[in-house]
Design a protein that fits this description.
This protein has about 475 residues and is an alpha+beta fold. It contains twelve helices and 25 strands. The structure holds flavin mononucleotide and manganese (II) ion.
Length: about 475
């Protein structure tokens, strides 16, 4: 059954023993980040809790982090399923998206303040990389924008810097869907309406962080994930719709051509991304619940919550695209977490002819345009999630000179520190040019049989195992 909002989901997480609340007052300028990171490093996938902070600095709002991607088992709860069924839930949702419905009002309208009353400082002012980020960031926003030509909506998660009571910085990579909307409004010299939504049913957030073809409404995919339409309400001051039961909604406009320094920010690559000239959101209204919960993601050094959610979600999104949309014989897809769920992509397939490996790579690179810097394609007997097997395939099914294919002049991840030295700012074109490599680690000819002791002999000794003196 679908969660109606973040708070209902948090109750399920708590009932499952996966949410640890801290009552002790904490300092958002360093302590929230330090506790979250230490918990992430200290506990493994099985026992890592999501964390709630009841008293965060001067803010009245409790804060939660790790509630979607603290671990794969938490992620599975967010989808109301088991870990091994995560891909199936994604597949069903993408085959059967459910369009959102418009409703008159919702819990996100319990308190409304517009104009000069708006104050982003009522949010917890969390600094995620103390001493290096320039100030507080909103790390789990759903940024809603519209294509001015088609009127179609996009929802994406892009980092948001709190710069002042009514001023936010927004970093959107040049190949992202909202970046296209910004360019369209800039060329028409129009201001662009934006809504920054914080705290929703987790399926909406999972759709927001995942790449679908341009024009896909992420709220419809979320409808497919939750099995029910997402209820939306009209914003107060901009022509956009937002989830009716969101915790907090910040409405505003981006003025055409206006750019300002944003960043630096501790990114999912494990490094600080440099600052650069980015658009500014001027807030026009804040609507919220009376007692909202403020939702955040832990990013930075992998593994992180960010790499966990992006690995599981992106792999599912790309699998559907390659297999169902393009009809390619792909068996499995995996973005590794050590590659920040971005740089290292492994795909297994039952190849029908040699050139098909490139079709798979091109298919992947055209949807996930900035991901898969290293793309390894293996045969379908290799488990893409098992690095030992992948390395074995690379070792004995590939010849580097024959089987690598490099493309230059493609979009890299905007925050990949290998594109340019740190003094090159984020918006500099040098950060927008990179390259990709395909390694075809499939067999190119018939192989001799694998060198293994035959299965029947292994079974025979298993039966006698204790007789050999083993426990
Ligand atoms: C925690 C987190 C933070 C992210 N921050 C950014 C960001 O600052 N800028 C960006 O362009 N993408 C960021 N992304 C990636 C986008 O959310 C993702 O590529 C998504 O598909 C974008 O939506 P779009 O495909 O509709 O453009 C982030 C993802 C996560 C999980
Ligand atoms: Mn999109």
């Amino acid at each position: 059954m679908a969660y109606s909002d973040l708070q209902e989901y948090l109750r399920s997480l708590e009932a499952a023993g996966k949410l640890h609340w801290i009552n002790e007052p904490v300092d958002p300028s360093w302590e929230v980040a330090a506790i979250t990171r230490h918990a992430f490093d200290r506990y493994g996938w099985i026992d890592r809790p999501a964390i709630g902070f009841r008293r965060v600095g001067a803010s009245q709002m409790p804060l939660v982090v790790g509630v979607i991607g603290g671990s794969p088992s938490i992620y599975a709860l967010a989808l109301s399923t088991d870990v091994d069924k995560i891909p199936a839930v994604w597949e069903r949702a993408q085959r059967n998206p459910i369009e959102p419905v418009n409703v008159q009002t919702g819990l996100c309208k319990e308190m409304i303040c517009c104009g000069s009353e708006v104050d982003a400082h009522v949010l917890p002012q969390v600094v995620w990389t103390p001493g290096q980020d320039p100030g507080p960031y909103i790390t789990a926003p759903l940024v809603v924008t519209k294509d001015p030509e088609t009127g179609r909506r996009n929802v994406g998660t892009y980092r948001v810097q709190i710069k002042g009571s009514q001023r936010l910085g927004l970093y959107v990579g040049s190949a992202q869907h909202a970046a296209r909307h910004i360019r369209q409004h800039d060329s028409r010299k129009q201001e662009m309406p934006v809504a920054v939504v914080i705290g929703t049913d987790p399926t909406l957030v999972l759709a927001s962080i995942t790449k679908f073809p341009y024009g896909t409404d992420e709220f419809s995919v979320a409808g497919g994930l939750r099995g029910e339409p997402v209820p939306l309400v009209d914003c107060e001051t901009v022509d956009l719709q937002v989830p009716a039961n969101a915790e907090i909604v910040l409405e505003g406009v981006i003025r055409s051509g206006v750019r300002e320094l944003e960043g630096p920010f501790g990114e999912f690559s494990g490094y600080m991304s440099p600052g650069g000239q980015s658009p500014v959101i001027e807030l026009t209204c804040m609507t919220r619940r009376r007692t909202p919960v403020y939702h955040c993601f832990l990013s930075q050094m992998p593994p992180s919550e960010s790499s966990c959610i992006r690995s599981l979600s992106r792999s599912a999104g790309l699998f559907h695209h390659l297999r169902q949309v393009l009809g390619l014989p792909v068996k499995d897809v995996h973005f590794t977490e050590s590659g920040g769920a971005s740089s290292m992509l492994v795909i297994s397939m039952r190849k029908e002819y040699p050139e098909q490996v490139k079709e798979v790579a091109f298919g992947a690179w055209s949807l996930m345009n900035k991901e898969g810097k290293f793309t390894v394609v293996v045969d379908d007997d290799i488990d893409v999630r098992n690095p030992f097997q992948v390395e074995w395939a690379m070792s004995f099914r590939a010849q580097p000179a024959r089987d690598t294919f490099v493309v230059d002049g493609v979009v890299p991840s905007g925050v990949d520190p290998s594109t340019a030295p740190p003094d090159v700012p984020q918006h500099d074109p040098r950060r927008q040019a990179g390259s990709k490599m395909l390694l075809d680690a499939t067999r190119k000819h018939p192989y001799t049989p694998a060198a293994r002791v035959p299965g029947e002999y292994i079974e025979a000794v298993q039966k006698k195992w204790r007789q050999y003196g083993f426990k």
